[in-house]
Amino acid sequence: MHGAALTLGLSSLALAGFPLVRPFFPFDPRTPAETLAGVSRAVTSAPWLIAHYLALIGFVLLLCVLPALAARLAAAGVESRARRATLLSGVGVALILPTLGVELYVLPAIGRLYLDGQLAVAELVGLIYRGGAVLVMLLGLLLLAIGAVLFARAVGKSGALPRWAAVTYAVGLAFWCPLLPPPVRIVDGLLIGVGGLGLAWALRRSPPH
Hints:
The protein is built from eight helices and no strands. The chain is mainly α.
C-alpha cells in the first residue's frame, strides 16, 4: 500500500495547493465582455496555470488511488459500500475534469487573444460557461460529494482507516465547488490536505488485511 499512500498524499497536497495559488476574481458569464476585460490578465498568468495543473494532477491521482482505497475497505468487510463510494467518486471526478481542461487550456487562450486586441472572443466565455459544460460539472460535483460521504461512512463502519481523517477528507471533497467564496475554498482545500494526508499515513502504516 506504500504506492497508494504516496499517490493519495500527492493528490491531497495538490488539491490543497490549488486554492492557495489560484487567483480569485469576479466572474459573470452573463456579461462576457466586461468579465473578460477584468480577468484576461489573471487567466493568462502563471499562478492560474500552476493552480489548475495542481487541480488536474490532484484529481487524476485521486482516480488512480480509488481502487486501493476500495480494496482496503473491501478487506474490512464493507465491499458493497466501498464499491458504491468508488463508483460515484470516480464518475464525479471524470465529469469535473473537462471543465478543468477548459480553464487550463481554453480560457487562457481566449484571454491571450483578448489582450492581443481580438475583443470579439469575449462572446466565447458566455457560450462556454452558460452551456451544457456547466451542467456536466455540477453533476460531477454532486456525484463526488455523494461518493465522499459514502466513503466516510464506509470507513466509520469498517474501522479500516482513521475516522477523523476520512470525515475531514470527505467534507473537503464534498464542498469542493467553484461557486463558493475564496475563504471557504481555501479552508476546503486545507481539509482535503489534512484529511488526505491522514489517510495516506494510515495506508502506509497499516498492514494489508
